[in-house]
Every structure is written in structure tokens, then in C-alpha cells.
Amino acid sequence: YELPPAPPAGQLDVRFTSQRMVETHPAEFKEMLSYPIQVKSVAYPITIDWNIKKDCNTHYELVYLMDGKEVGKRAMSGSNRIRVQQAVDQIIIRARMIESEIPSVFALRQNYPNPFNPSTVIQYELPMNAHVTLTIFNVAGQEVTRLIDGNQSAGYHSVSWDARNLSEAQLGTGVYFYQLVATDINNPTESYRQVRKMLLVK
């Protein structure tokens, strides 16, 4: 998996700083492992896709650095993608073992990035199998779109929203709210509801 020397300045090049195109980690490890990726002469925004097996007991996250300082972070799970809008000089994949894929409590995380344009990612956690609705509202309280409406298994989940409504029309700059309602499939009297705010800027 060794790569040839990096091309001259001004030419596109993305590779692990180890000068390899592939990195691996042990099946079992205790410490957090980091795999830096150098990014040169890339036209932004860039899109990063991943596909992580559901039975994987390793947690991954993307960290973005600019001038050596962290400017963004994104948890990686399942199959998803993210757009990095601003230029960064390094991307790091961090890996650590997790004891369980099942969170202990319900949670709705702040979307990232926020403010965003043109898309953002919403993460949430289910400690049990639940019927989930994830709905976007405008400041008038009107439903803009419904991203999730169905049964989901316990675990860590995420979904991307590209600022389109139910008619697939692109929405304009403004404040929007996203609401998670999760009801225990085995006990419908147990329900979780939370609302967070996000900002679309164009």
C-alpha cells in the first residue's frame, strides 16, 4: 500500500501521512489510535464518505485541523457522508474501542456543522428499539420535512439534511428547529422528546 513520492506543489494529493493509501488497526486495542491524512491542492468543499459495519465495536471520528488547530469534529458510524466547507491542512481519523454499541440514555446531539450550507448532519442515540420521528420545523412552527419516521434499533444513529423541504425545494437562510421523538416499541408509554436549533446560512 506504499504510495510514490508526493507530486509537486499545486497538484492534487490526498494520502495518509505514513505515505500509504491504506491504514489498519489491531482487532483489539486499548489506547486511542490516530491516522493523519495530508490534504494538498484540493478544491473545497470536499465530500468524505464512509461505510462502517454495524457489528464493528470500534468508534471512529474525523477531526479537521487548520494551522495545527482543531476546527471540526464528526463522529463516524454506519454509512454516511459529510462535506467539509473550509480548507484544512490535515484530516485525522481517530479510532477507539467501545464496550457497547448501545448507549445508556436517549440523546439528540447538536447538528454539525452549525451554521451550515448546504448540508448538515444530525446525530442521536437510542438506548432501546424505538419508533423514531425526526422532523424539521421553521420558525413559524410549520413542518418543513420529516427525515425519519419508523422503527429503529437501539444504538448510535445519524442522518444528513441538505436543506430541502418535502417538495425537494431548496430552503433559504434562516433558523430551523429539529425535533426527535422516540417511543419505546415494547412500552409505548415510555417516550423521549427533544428539540434543538440550527442555522442555515447562504
Which terms would index this structure?
single chain, 202 residues, mainly beta, flat
Report on the architecture of this protein.
This protein is mostly beta strands and 202 residues long. The chain contains no helices and 14 strands. A five-stranded antiparallel beta sheet has the order 1-2-7-4-5, with no helix packed on it. The protein has a four-stranded antiparallel beta sheet with strand order 11-10-13-14, with no helix packed on it.
Share of helical residues: under 10%
The parts where pLDDT drops under 50 for at least 5 residues are none
Q: Using DSSP, what is the number of strands?
A: 14
* Average pLDDT taken over every residue: 89
Sheet/helix structural class: mainly beta
Physical arrangement of strands within the biggest beta sheet: 1-2-7-4-5
Order of helices and strands: EEEEEEEEEEEEEE
Q: What would you report as the Rg, rounded to the nearest angstrom?
A: 19 Å
Biggest beta sheet attributes: 5 strands, antiparallel
Total of DSSP H or I helical runs spanning 4+ residues: 0
The shape, in one word, is flat
- Beta content comes to over 45%
Termini Cα gap? 41 Å
Secondary structure blueprint with pairings:
Blueprint: E1 13-16, E2 33-40, E3 46-51, E4 58-66, E5 69-76, E6 79-84, E7 90-97, E8 107-108, E9 120-126, E10 130-138, E11 143-152, E12 155-161, E13 174-184, E14 191-200
Antiparallel strand pairs: 1-2, 2-7, 3-6, 4-5, 4-7, 8-9, 9-12, 10-11, 10-13, 13-14
